């Protein structure tokens, strides 16, 4: 049996997945029962991503093991079905970014009818773009972890703003 040693990029991706799982668990304290259930599911799926990145060799050129890819896709599906969690539908990009360094994207703009709310959403989107730039340029993974906390605070604010527009 060959001992598998994850790459530094895989360790960074696993750490980011663990940070996101922790954010999801903390949010369950203040979430509705429905969103709390979804947040627990997201956290559990992210735990699978962490373990897979640490213990399994990548199955494709992108550096992600098969189990991690499937669990991350399931977590994104859970987030897409439950926008009140504050996790954007494509939040897996923050984990994958540690592996592939693809540019981070903002979620699609919410269809906001009120002028004040539209301006607030534009400001939050601009702040996310700024944080994405800092995250891409982060010198250490500790800095990246702190930036992820800030990024997901903004995603939560955008989700709350979207909830206001839905009523």
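Sequence proposed for the structure above (167 residues):
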């Amino acid at each position: 049996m060959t001992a598998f040693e994850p790459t530094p990029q895989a360790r960074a991706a696993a750490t980011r997945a663990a940070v996101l799982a922790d954010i999801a668990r903390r949010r369950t304290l203040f979430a509705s029962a429905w969103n709390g259930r979804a947040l627990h599911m997201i956290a559990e799926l992210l735990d699978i991503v962490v373990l897979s990145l640490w213990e399994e060799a990548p199955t494709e050129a992108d550096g992600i093991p098969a189990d991690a890819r499937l669990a991350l896709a399931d977590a994104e599906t859970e987030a897409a079905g439950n926008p009140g969690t504050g996790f954007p539908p494509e939040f897996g990009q923050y984990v994958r970014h540690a592996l592939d360094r693809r540019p981070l994207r903002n979620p699609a703009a919410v269809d906001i009818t009120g002028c004040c709310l539209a301006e607030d959403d534009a400001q939050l989107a601009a702040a996310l773009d700024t944080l994405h730039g800092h995250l891409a340029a982060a010198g250490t993974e500790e800095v990246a972890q702190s930036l992820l906390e800030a990024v997901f605070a903004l995603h939560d604010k955008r989700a709350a703003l979207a909830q206001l527009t839905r009523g």
